[in-house]
């Protein structure tokens, strides 16, 4: 900071989030100064196109098409990177850090791919790289991990961290819409992109899981080793069968500390209607974090949108201006660049309960075959749901089975065997059932 | 701190929370050092009785009956006050602060009564007074207000901040138990004190509301001006009628920014089954916070118990050792001793929807009388529920009315008139219905 309490800021990228950030920086200066004693001074709004900036009536004197100028300006203390992607954004962040400027970013893809290298550059240059807005938008969950829950060994995290997917699933659950119909509705409401693949494939959730797990477990996490399944292949029939069994389907980013390593995965999962995450509906996000001392905590709010995300960006900016972010960034050894590598377990090693839907020819003896195969693989059946569904006999009739806790590798072997039976008409569906994580607190 | 990264600590008061804090400080030294680089050194466990300390196998070499010794020891950087109450605790904190020691406390009663004076003493002596554990136990909600949501103007807070009350209400809701039966069960489970008055009267919630509102709104708040109603007069019949109407009853600590001031109150309230607070069950706590930029966020977890509360205490302790707490304590002007006084509005000024239960003689024309009185006071009826309940005719039959938004002062006038009718058999019941707070975010 140039003067005590004054902080020169450049916002690079003026889309939804950048526009909201610039607007709050302009409009709420007095509120922020009153609350924190910090005087924030927005000096550049960098973009190629200022349509959004103009529609928000931002000061045209701040518009700048060349980010070099902001990076070279000694009055800029903090660069807020909101370009997105992993190319130009990366260059901007690296150059800002090397130029001795603190950086705030919401860029989960970049951090998931290159977090450790960027953290190292920041450390080497004596500045900080803050990223509260990269996970779950406005919810201060990154801070919970490095500050509020810092005395805890984190045992598990279960996150609903993609609002688009949660909105689509909520529509499927509450209105009985199929995936395609719910997606189209989300696109009409502006809650899904025209090309929704990053969201619905689960990849965006995996980016966030990489960041949260790195922080929570203090280990380097490899995005590429996270098995990812999206909601784009989810069928309404399974959503409904799940409801009948007392479960709500959510796209969960899951991180569990197990014997021998971490299990990280993103996939549609069933959770009990009693679990707080089951009630997170529409575009809202929430992250359940289980600490060894605190037990179960959960953080809920809007995971996207301009103004909620800007709230997180400004909290980072203010922590830099107040001096706490640089202090923690220097002292905390949990940032990825200094952390040992995590042992990421393959999903075959997970023990869980499962929901299976097998489409079979309606003939005698088929269920006995399924039960025998499951038994041979040490999988014990908890419940069976078989309904007379007259229609579509070509697809077979659904046999829904829930299992007791089983090893996923065993289950997948059994399913391969089941799917090769003559009486089985198509690939079976398998969805993990997430039980309430056991709290370890003893006192 | 004496050396960089080393921090001498005295735990004063070794009950449930003090014992858990001392245990985590002893047992988790390496975990904490690995996560934060801070070496915590527990030097004193001060109490008159060490039964609990011994049962936790804490090191008897640390036991000390005289707190003067800890306060006089230059190796003590931080005093953790867990004595409770407003007499000895106050003396210990004041002396520690004046002796240049940072203080961490979980003492909501003391802060609610004397927060501003204590903050001033801390400021005057260049040390910090931290109190994350004073509100909602292990949930990092105090931090959310001064850090994660710092860029927001806080518009409203709705908190379930007393686990004993929430446990009792959950039993009433889920098992249909009456208040006395549910309280007895809570006492048997160790979730309610033998003398439960502080909890069930709502006073403990009011202490926490005083602290949260001071922080959230940056104003001095007077505990004495907060209208407080507990759960001890709540009747099962109203819990059940509420459920029938789609509402769940919760003891809410409510803080709303209104035109002309703040409305702060603690009372049993109905919330829609769709609101996230509705599914906070058993001894768990949660606080919904609405910020002008972030919209609705919620923080959930255990609000009491040794180890969850110790998690919050240690987060404060580590912030002191890392230097961030003193930095923020110096710079943030939102602490009560520097804040202007809040305009606390009387509850007569609130606009809300209400649930009324009037016990009437089952005779023609009574309902018309009620409707006329309500109409005369500008209160419009939203729904009516009248059931044929044969029994107890001496008490009358219940007429349940929900209103559209009305001014509480008008409603209370109407109720006084209603209760003076010959056909009305006893004092009517009135419970506020809390609608989803409107988010102000526009972007």
Describe the structure in your own words.
2 copies of one chain form a homodimer. With 443 residues, chain A is an alpha/beta fold. Chain A has helices spanning 16-27, 29-36, 51-55, 67-72, 88-98, 108-124, 141-148, 163-175, 179-188, 197-200, 203-217, 236-244, 306-322, 324-331, 366-376, 408-419, and strands at residues 6-12, 39-46, 63-64, 78-81, 102-105, 129-130, 154-160, 247-258, 261-272, 284-291, 295-302, 351-360, 381-386, 397-403, 406-407, 429-434. The first copy, chain A, folds into 3 domains: 6-140 and 308-338, Rossmann fold (3-Layer(aba) Sandwich), CATH 3.40.50.720; 142-303, Dihydrodipicolinate Reductase, domain 2, CATH 3.30.360; 347-434, Alpha-Beta Plaits, CATH 3.30.70.260. Chain A is built from 16 helices and 16 strands. In chain A, helix 1 (16-27) crosses helix 13 (306-322), helix 5 (88-98) packs parallel to helix 6 and helix 6 packs parallel to helix 11 (203-217). Chain A starts with 5 loop residues before the first strand and ends in a 9-residue tail after the last strand. Chains A and B meet through helix 1, helix 2, helix 7, strand 10 and strand 11 of A and helix 1, helix 2, helix 7, strand 10 and strand 11 of B. Strand 11 of chain A pairs antiparallel with strand 11 of chain B.
């Amino acid at each position: 900071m140039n003067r005590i309490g004054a902080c020169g800021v450049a916002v690079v990228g003026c889309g939804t989030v950048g526009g909201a950030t610039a607007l709050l920086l302009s409009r709420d200066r007095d509120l922020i100064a009153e609350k924190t004693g910090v005087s924030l001074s927005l000096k550049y709004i960098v973009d190629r196109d200022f349509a959004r900036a103009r529609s928000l009536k931002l000061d045209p004197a701040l518009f700048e098409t060349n980010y070099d100028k902001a990076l070279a300006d000694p009055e800029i203390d903090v660069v807020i990177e909101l370009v997105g992607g992993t190319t130009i954004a990366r260059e901007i962040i690296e150059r800002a850090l090397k130029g001795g400027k603190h950086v705030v970013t919401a860029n989960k893809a970049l951090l998931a791919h290159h977090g450790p290298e960027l953290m190292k550059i920041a450390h080497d240059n004596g500045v900080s790289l803050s990223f509260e807005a990269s996970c779950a938008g406005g919810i201060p969950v990154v801070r919970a991990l490095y500050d509020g829950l810092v005395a805890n060994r984190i045992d598990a995290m279960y996150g609903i961290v993609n609002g688009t997917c949660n909105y689509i699933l909520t529509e499927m659950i509450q209105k009985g819409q199929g995936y395609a119909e719910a997606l189209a509705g989300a696109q009409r409401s502006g809650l899904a992109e025209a090309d929704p693949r990053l969201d619905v494939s689960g990849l965006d959730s995996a980016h966030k899981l990489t960041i949260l797990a790195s922080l929570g477990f203090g280990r380097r996490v490899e995005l590429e080793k996270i098995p990812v399944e999206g909601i784009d292949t989810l069928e309404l029939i399974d959503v409904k069968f799940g409801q009948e069994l007392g479960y709500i389907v959510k796209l969960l980013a899951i991180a569990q500390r197990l014997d021998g390593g971490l299990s990280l995965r993103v996939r549609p999962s069933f959770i009990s209607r009693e679990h707080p995450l089951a009630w997170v509906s529409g575009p809202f996000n929430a992250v359940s974090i289980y600490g060894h001392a605190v037990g179960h905590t959960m953080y809920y709010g809007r995971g996207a949108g301009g103004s909620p995300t800007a709230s997180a960006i400004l909290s980072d900016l203010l922590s830099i201006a107040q001096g706490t972010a640089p202090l923690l960034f220097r002292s905390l050894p949990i940032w990825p660049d200094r952390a040992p590598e995590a042992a990421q377990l393959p999903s075959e090693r997970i023990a869980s309960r499962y929901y299976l839907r097998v489409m079979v020819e309606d003939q005698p003896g088929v269920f006995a075959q399924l039960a025998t195969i499951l038994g041979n693989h040490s999988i014990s059946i908890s419940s069976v749901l078989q309904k007379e569904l007259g229609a579509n006999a070509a697809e077979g009739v659904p046999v829904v089975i829930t299992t007791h806790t089983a090893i996923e590798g065993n289950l997948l072997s059994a399913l391969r065997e089941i799917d090769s039976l003559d009486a089985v008409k198509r690939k079976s569906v398998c969805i993990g059932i997430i039980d309430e994580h056991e709290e370890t607190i003893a006192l």
